[in-house]
Amino acid sequence: MRLPPGRFLARVTALPAIAVSAWLLVAFPLLALGLFTPWIALILGAPAVIAAGALVPRLIPDPDEDVPWWPVLLVLVITVAFAIVQIAYHAEALVIRRDPASYAMYTVWIAENGYLPIPQQRDLIAGNDPALSYQSLAHYERGDAIWPQFMAGAPLITAIGYWIGGLDGMLVVTPILGALGVLTFAGLTARLVGARWAPLAALVLALCLPQQWVSRFTYSEPVTQILLLGGLVLAYDSLVRRTHISDRWSRDRTLAGIAGLVLGLALVVRIDAIRDLLPVVGFIALLLLARRGQALPLLGGLALGVGLGLYAGYGLSLPYLEYLSDSLDPLLMISGGVILAAVIGTAVLWRYGPPHTDRVRWLPNTVAALALLTMVGFAIRPLLWPDHGHGSDFTDGWVAYVQSREGLPVEGSRTYYDMSLYWVGWYVGLGTVLFASLGVALVLRRLTSWRDPQWLLPAMLLVWSVATTLMRPAITPDHPWASRRLIVLVIPAFVLFAVWFLAWLTRYCAIAVRAERDASPVRALPVVVAAGAAVAMIGPTAITSFAGIMGYRQDVGTVAATERLCAALPDDASVIVVDSGMAGNYMPLLRNVCGVPTAALNDATPENVDRVVAGIHQRDRTAVLASEDWDQLTSLAPESEPDRPFHVVAQMDPSTLMAPPTGHWSFVGSVWITVVPDP
Question: What is the domain extent for residue 13?
Fold first, then answer.
């Protein structure tokens, strides 16, 4: 049966979140059980994704508006074009310097082995020699095991690409996920603003530098974006029809449960999604007070997804959560307080009824004014409250280094969090920031006037996320790296509210034109306003991207160099990294990708090297020393000739603090190895 364009757009924009959630529901338990192998995952996961993709979209109601085909086709063209460009420019980040390669190493390990944690394999190296260390960047040593950093969600998805096409296949999965994030955002815009405005929103998001940038790496942000925006899409669809809490089970309740599950599963991907989900708890309390039938299914789905996320964190990523404890523990306490307050407030208001805020005539204008004043506060914040204090000597040192490169006053403690609103302006333009500020003020005014209830959950979640993220981005402030913190919800929120304001302004102008008796001079006013505002949004966004860092690929040649490195190692090799400078960067590459037991020598003295090498030979293994320094290897093993199978000279992203990133820096990576003969 041929789908009408409105129904097709509604269903296809919900599919990414449905498919990702179905896969995670199968893949994560398999990983927890140590059974995440290609065939088991295919046999169980593929039918789950196909069934969910075939059945769940049938629950989605048709849109109220009459949708033509042209916005649907434009959204699809933008999505496909985005995917093609990002695949063509995808990065090859495998050497751990920042987070992308950490996710890549996580992916390779679970795709090859199907379980966690990573064994240290001391028995294949030199036993419990005290000079050896097994910890490296993004890999924590605990007892006899190694635990990779971060949550399992994103690697569980990029593992599909690794199974299909090896390292290259893994690296092109995230560009596809980034494109699906654009598609999902178009669906949310179509529902909240109108299908005819969805292409503009999709285009601005697709053009902005952070969306392109995170989609070229193995980051977790594109997956989180799909789940959170997709959860809002499904929640909107579930609430289109009003049902009472005492009514029989319906498709709306099923869809509400799925929406809650999709939102909760974001926690399997990123632990900080806890903060973004707090408004959903308050919204469920409001649904209960309104006696809506979708309240309990939404709560059940959310609880299931969050439960899986907490197990993912405390079961498979505990050392990572311990590392984050200074910020995570207060967040968990706040979350507990929010849940307790929601329970108590719901119980009290269930008995006595909610307050009649509609009788407070000054409230809507006050809320709108407060929203605008808040944005003004973020704008003047750098002048009044410059932010300091990273809490990390390493971060202080890195910020001081970037400041010296840029000719800024060297003040390593400077966090630049007060610049967060300007970061948004860099990437989507000040016009979008202005339109979004006016848009959120009007949306909140309408909500407090008891109008546009479909905006309540999106506004609660997006406004909360924008406010808390801009207040404290909690990330190293150099760009483009810091833009990660903006791309999941902050930039989509600004674009969404800006497009909503543009649609409202266009309708307002159209009404004004119709009210004029002789409207011929101003008949084109709505078109002019819409076109001018759209250019004001698209222009700066495109300029920042095209003049920035989008014209090159990062770390090109790393895949080929890694394959040469692995091929150069004997099958029974036990690798000792004697260069303390390279150990943290390359140990996961040797262990996870090449599949050889690997350890770092804390003090590479000849005595320690001889003892460890002798221990390897006693186990009938081939001892291999690795270093970035040829001279070091020749001095430690003069009887062997070093080889350099890994050598990369490539472009890498720069770091900037006070302006959008432009140009590139250089990455030079080398690994020399030498096989120590058994005497």
Answer: 1-90+172-228
* Residues 512-566 pLDDT 10s: 666 665 555 666 777 777 788 888 899 999 999 988 788 889 999 999 999 999 9
Predicted TM-score of the model (pTM): 0.95
Gap between the Cα atoms of 52 and 201, Å rounded: 27
Q: At a CB cut-off of 8 Å and minimum separation 6, what does 314 contact?
A: 321
Asked if the structure places residue 234 within a domain, the reply is no
> Cβ of 121: how many Cβ atoms within 10 Å?
16
Give 651's strand partners.
Answer: 666
- CA distances to 53, 232, 246 from 488, rounded to whole Å, are 23, 13, 36
Q: Are 660 and 428 in contact (CB under 8 A)?
A: no
Count the residues in the chain.
Answer: 679
Which parts of 523-592 fold into alpha helices (H)? 525-546, 558-568, 580-588
Do residues 217 and 272 both lie within one domain?
Answer: no
In a domain, 654, yes or no: yes
Query: Considering the domain boundaries, does residue 66 fall inside one?
Result: yes
CA 623/CA 126 separation, integer angstroms: 10
CB atoms within 10 A of CB 88: 11
Using CA atoms, how far apart are residues 407 and 114, in angstroms rounded to an integer? 48
Task: Report CA-CA distances (Å) from 649 to 389, 583, 604, 667.
Answer: 35, 19, 27, 6
Residues with pLDDT less than 50, the chain: none
> Any idea which residue has 């579930």 for tokens?
238
And the tokens for 538?
Answer: 């698209």
**Alpha carbon of residue 214 to chain centroid:** 8
- Residue 113: inside a domain: no
Residue-level pLDDT at 576 = 93
Asked if 585 contacts 95 with a C-beta cutoff of 8 angstroms, the reply is yes
* Whether 369 and 477 share a structural domain: yes
Q: Are residues 180 and 135 in the same domain?
A: no
Counting the structural domains of the chain, the total is 4
Cβ-contact 175, 90 below 8 angstroms:
yes
Q: Are residues 545 and 490 in the same domain?
A: yes
Q: What is the pLDDT of residue 527?
A: 77
Axis-axis angle for helices 15-32, 221-238 (nearest 10): 120
